[in-house]
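Slide 14.
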Amino acid sequence: MFYTIGEMAEKLKVAPSTLRYYDKEGLLPFVERSSGGIRMFNEKDFMWLTTIECLKKTGLPIKEIKIFIDWCMEGDSTIEQRLTLMEEQRRIVQAQISQMQDTLAVLDYKCWYYEKAKEAGTCAIHDTLTNENIPPQFRAAKEKTVTLK
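Slide 15: predicted structure.
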C-alpha cells in the first residue's frame, strides 16, 4: 500500500512541507516516485521517517541526519558509525531528561512554596520555616533556588 505525502505527513503528525523539506535535503533517497514524479510512501518509509523524526527531536542537525541516512544507504560497512551516532544521541537525551527532572523538582518545590504562602496569606511564612519544616522531597530543589517572593 502506498501513501500520498499528505497521508504520510498525517500519519507522522508533521506538515507535508516537512516531508518536502526532508526530500529537498536528501533525507528521503529511499522513497519511490511514480512515473510522474509523485512521492509514493510505504510502511517501510514510515519506519525511516520515524527514525528521522526521532533524531531531529534529539537536536541532531539535518546535515548530520543526512550523513546517517547516507550511512544506512551504504549498508553494513557503516554499522559502527551508526551505532556510535545513536549512542551519542542517547547520551544527549539522557542529559536532557536529567536536566528536565531537575527543572521539574524546582517547579514542584515552588508549587509547594506558594501553596504554603497561600494558606498563610503571605510569602513571609517561609522566613519562619526551618529546613525540617520543608518536606524532604523539596529540600534539594530549595537549595538550588533563590527564594523570590
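Speaker note: Helices lie at 5-12, 16-24, 43-57, 62-74, 79-120, 125-128, 136-144.
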